[in-house]
Amino acid sequence: MTAITTGTTAGAREHARAQEAAAVGTVATMPTRPANSWPSPPTEIDAQALVHAEVVAGGGYAHLVVARGTHIRLTDLQGDACAHLLAYRLDRPWERLNVADTVKVQWQVYLTAGHLLLSDQGRVLASIVGDSSAHQDALYGTTTRARNDERYGDGSAQGPTPAGRELLALAAAKHDLSRRDLPPSISFFQGVRIDDEGHPVFEGSAGPGAAVTLRAEVPLLLLVANTAHPLDPREFVSTPLEVLAWRGEPTTPADPLWNATPEGRRAFVNTREDLTARGIA
Fold first, then answer.
1. What is the four-CA torsion angle of 107, 109, 111, 114, rounded to 10 degrees?
2. Domain range annotation of the chain
3. Angstrom distance (rounded) from CA 83 to CA 226
4. Are 173 and 182 in contact (CB under 8 A)?
5. Each residue of 216-271: pLDDT tens digit?
6. pLDDT tens for each residue of 262-272
7. Hey, which end of the chain has fewer CB within 10 Å, N or C?
8. CB-side exposure of 57: number of CA atoms within 13 Å?
9. CA 137/CA 121 separation, integer angstroms
10. What dihedral angle (degrees, nearest 10) is formed by the CA atoms of 137, 142, 146, 151?
């Protein structure tokens, strides 16, 4: 067999195409194109509805743009993923996830199915419509470069123990956002509880296969860093995270979630009024 060389343009092209062919069916840590060719779509949907599908490696990140009504499912494939999430209004990214308001307005720090992710404008960015994990954290954010340098020896995004903030900064840059645009994040799959004396208790993972499903209530930009939780007492560990998104419908007044709480109803109405004024709803 004649070896492929890359010393010419034709040779480099042949080499690149050969690598792509060899990777088919084996490379999961990048978005699948088209998404509807994903080999194992959720059983409850038509595969043709998929708009995004990828596996984010441990220590990796993802960024995706989704339409209003889109469902986004995050799945901890092996039991040690931790999805640090940020959400932004696609049409106005200065309106973004505000974890403090999300917790304060809903009188709840332990977010699960039936809770909302709110912006600082009192609007619903996304709702949590499914959660088989119940291991989340809305208090401690993600890891930083300085802390990971101190603890593991390297917190750089390209290193073996990347900090979540470094990964989120890379994801943000893909959308012309900078570090100043990174507010505190919420994390899924590694739980934290506060004991009776006010001390944090790291609960770890719910195990392989745990999943959280979000529903976009406005056009969204989502940034995800899959890296160790800042309170994880173990040596650095981070395993793959599946990210799937499919077309759906946003919450309507007929949905029980709309009127589940007075605070949630006001947030939904506020969101609808804004979208209507902008010709989106």
1. -10
2. 56-277
3. 5
4. no
5. 999 999 999 999 999 999 999 999 999 999 999 999 999 999 999 999 999 999 99
6. 999 999 999 99
7. N
8. 11
9. 22
10. 50
